[in-house]
Amino acid sequence: MTFRIAQISDTHLSPAHPAFTANFDALTTHLRATRPDLVVNTGDVSAHGELGGEEAERDLRFARDRHAALGLDWLALPGNHDVGNDPAVTERNGADRDRVARWNSVFGADRFLRDVPGWRLIGLDSLITATDMAEEQFGFLADALAGAGPRRVALFLHKPLCEEAMSEAALTYWAVLPEARHRMLSLLERTPPAFVASGHVHQWRDRGVSQGLCQIWAPSVAFHVGDTWQHRVGEKCQGYVEHTLHPDGRHDYRLVEPEGLIRNDIGLMPEVYGPQTPVTD
Ligand SMILES: [Fe+2]
Ligand SMILES: [Fe+2]
């Protein structure tokens, strides 16, 4: 029997942003009808969870309650809008113990391990890889891979491992930091995952194979970033990725664009995150 995962991402939920809630409501209707075996949200579950204070608590709880109301089995990983961005690429609201503790108090762990027929699903927090919380997670990954046995591994995280090539050296907003990436790759060498599923870029892309690893980028449920403000490296749409895992290790996947999801452009919604900066090159 196959196991179907709906990988949703970047839902950016908040009671302050009804356009994003409307997209989640349309997605909810679709998922209740199609009933995947598991829903995995690959992060930026909330709109302002990284800010701290009442606003963060409000958004995280709102997002958690919306997921619980799906009536389906679900897991969520934190994104930069939930626990703060990697401190190496942000000057304020960086991921720290307080923010991760707030996530823990609402969602539970910031990582997961789930065995399903023929497969081991591993979820990681990609925002803490350069903090003093990283060691424990690398240990978690090493143990999860060592215990996979004959199962195929699928890896889920918010940020893609790289933009184009695992060898790229730049510290960027868009991908796992190079040092953490290489440490993950060395752990993955003996047990390569069948695929690495991520969000964060708000673009759908499945051609990101580097060093033999297939990277699948889920689009955002909530919004895309118009071409004026973000380069197009994949497809800018609103939807999710359905993964079908066969017990013998085969994997199929497809983009799903449910009816009723509105194509929101965050560049035209400055009330959410302020004016976006136009791309220059
Ligand atoms: Fe996002
Ligand atoms: Fe993100």
Automatic annotation (TrEMBL):
GO molecular function, a single term: hydrolase activity
Pfam families given in the database record: Metallophos (PF00149)
Domain Calcineurin-like phosphoesterase: 3-203
Entry's EC annotation: 3.1.-.-
Record carries keyword Hydrolase: yes
Domain of life: Bacteria
Signal peptide, first to last residue: none
Hydrolase as UniProt keyword: yes
Transmembrane segments: none
The entry's keywords: Hydrolase
Main EC class the enzyme belongs to: hydrolase
Protein name: Metallophosphoesterase family protein
